[in-house]
Input
Amino acid sequence: GTLPCWDFLDFFIVDQIVLPLKDFLCAGKVSFVFLPCYQPNAGFKPPDSLSPTSCSQNSVVSRKQLGLPDDAVVMGYFASLGRLDDVTLGVSWNWINVIADIMIVAPNTVLWLRNHPSPAALRIVRKLVALGVDKGRVILACDVEQHLHILRLQFADLLLDSPHYTGHTSCSDGLQAGVPVVAFCGEEFCGRVSTSLVTVAF
Output
């Protein structure tokens, strides 16, 4: 995502979305390997064994089990909460403002938010409450084992992206679970990954 120079690279694995044209033209003598998507994944079609109707024992089988309302539109965010840090990114609290506006206009929505690190999650909750969102509409989710995480993601209706530094693994997880992802497309490599993933998935 951020390289001090290109001189020490023999080649750079990219795709046509994560490498903006301006960077390609400035790269000098570096050789590029263009793939459909620079980030390798096993595939974006969830296997039948991950279907909510065919879960094995001790798996996630319902929204109720996850603390999610059955009749709500569930918007999930499971990327690093540090990507929403107003100190680090300066303008990133605009993301919170937009989500708050959506939740106020659409009262049947809830935000399903990763609860790690917990101080960051609580700060986001306080910000949403200050903007007029009822605290009960923000549902915190602890980290779980990867296979359970992919399984539970299927109970979300939509996964949200972060500005500036977009979802990488979190976006891949959502696509593997078969959940739509709203992707940002920024100016730099790290801000274009989710768009690359969503594009190749469809």
Observations:
- Helices lie at 21-25, 63-66, 86-89, 93-105, 118-130, 146-153, 169-176, 193-201.
